[in-house]
């Protein structure tokens, strides 16, 4: 029997814990899968080449992260309602007819983590969402459905305005932001590069939770800045990563993994992780030129 093959695409991608997460899911299911990291150069054609090469070799599914989520949406032949609403995709599913179906599990993952692992009530909460790229697009509708009162802000205010109009929410420039938000969510890629979004420190006055979609071995620059400027609590995006991955896994395989024990395994090493595979030896690789 051929081993099912999956991967996560991004740039950068060497930091990704997705291979560990999905092997833990497979262990829960009682099966074995191959899951690796793949990087492509940051342009539409290179990403399309990487996807064509991967699925052309018989792969079953893929996750997609920064900065390729909108490209992934455009490449797919079919789209879920969640992907259509977001205009971006973080999950690609190989269909029996050779086509690709796009979905977006980011919003479900974020809401799951906030409500189930961060003990946060979103109903009526004033939420500031920083960013207007694929990561932000994927979480707006689920946050609104959970009852959040959402404000959007981005370095390029025009881009924020265009996205806000799509969802009928408020958009503000960075330099006019002030306090009064219950939750501040960083959906920019800044923390991946050690950069803090250029928001005033007053944004975190009376903030109950500052949440960074990025994650790492230590707190991110966003989390540290938020703590220094009044945020009562911070969280990184590891829980969101696990929750959105669980939804992707369900879409691929029809099995719904338990998320809490996987988050615990990754954050505290309280559960044995599956052994490494040859896919881990080369942390990432470039696909060949498609010409």
Describe the structure.
The protein has 291 residues and is an alpha/beta fold. It has 2 domains: 139 residues, 3-Layer(aba) Sandwich (Rossmann fold); 132 residues, Rossmann fold. The protein is built from 11 helices and 12 strands. The strands form 2 sheets. It has a 6-stranded mixed β-sheet with strand order 2-1-3-5-6-4, with helices on both faces. It has a 6-stranded parallel β-sheet with strand order 9-8-7-10-11-12, with helices on both faces. The longest helix has 16 residues. It is globular.
Spatial order of strands in the largest sheet: 2-1-3-5-6-4
Per DSSP E runs of 2 or more residues, the count of β-strands stands at 12
Order of helices and strands: EHEHEHEHEEHEHEHEEEHEHHH
CATH topology of the largest domain: Rossmann fold
Please identify which CATH superfamily of the largest domain we are dealing with.
Leucine Dehydrogenase, chain A, domain 1
Helix content: 25-40%
Task: Please summarize the sheet with the most strands.
Answer: 6 strands, mixed
Whole-number mean pLDDT: 91
CATH class descriptor name of the largest domain: Alpha Beta
Overall outline: globular
Assign the CATH architecture of the largest domain: 3-Layer(aba) Sandwich
End-to-end separation: 33 Å
Question: Could you name the ranges where pLDDT drops below 50 across 5 or more consecutive residues?
Answer: 271-285
Rg of Cα set = 18 Å
Assembly annotation: single chain
Instruction: Tell me the count of domains.
Output: 2
Which structural class fits the helix and strand makeup?
Answer: alpha/beta
* β-strand amount: 15-25%
**Total helical segments:** 11
């Amino acid at each position: 029997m051929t081993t099912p093959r999956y991967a996560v695409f991004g740039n950068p991608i060497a930091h990704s814990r997705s291979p560990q997460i999905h092997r833990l899911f497979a262990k829960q299911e009682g099966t074995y899968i191959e899951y690796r990291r793949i990087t492509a150069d940051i342009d539409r054609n290179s990403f399309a080449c990487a996807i064509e090469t991967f699925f052309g070799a018989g792969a079953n599914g893929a996750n997609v992260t920064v900065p390729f989520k909108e490209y992934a949406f455009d490449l797919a032949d079919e789209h879920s309602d969640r992907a259509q609403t977001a205009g971006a995709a973080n999950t690609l599913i190989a269909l029996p007819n050779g086509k690709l179906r796009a979905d977006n599990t980011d919003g479900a993952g974020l809401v799951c983590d906030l409500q189930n692992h961060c003990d946060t009530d979103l109903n009526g909460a004033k939420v500031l969402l920083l960013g207007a790229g694929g990561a932000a697009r994927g979480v707006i509708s689920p946050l609104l459905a959970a009852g959040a009162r959402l404000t959007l802000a981005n370095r390029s205010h025009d881009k924020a305005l265009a996205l806000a109009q799509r969802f009928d929410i408020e958009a503000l420039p960075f330099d006019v932001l002030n306090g009064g938000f219950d939750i501040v969510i960083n959906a920019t890629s800044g923390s991946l590069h050690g950069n803090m979004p250029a928001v005033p420190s007053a944004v975190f006055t009376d903030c109950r939770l500052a949440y960074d979609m990025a994650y790492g071995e230590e707190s991110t620059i966003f989390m540290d800045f938020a703590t220094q400027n009044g945020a009562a609590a911070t969280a990184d995006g590891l829980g969101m990563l696990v929750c959105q991955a669980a939804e992707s896994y369900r879409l691929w395989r029809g099995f719904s993994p338990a998320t809490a024990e996987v988050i615990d395994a990754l954050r505290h090493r309280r559960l044995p992780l599956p052994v490494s595979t040859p896919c881990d030896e080369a942390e990432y690789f470039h696909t060949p030129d498609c010409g």
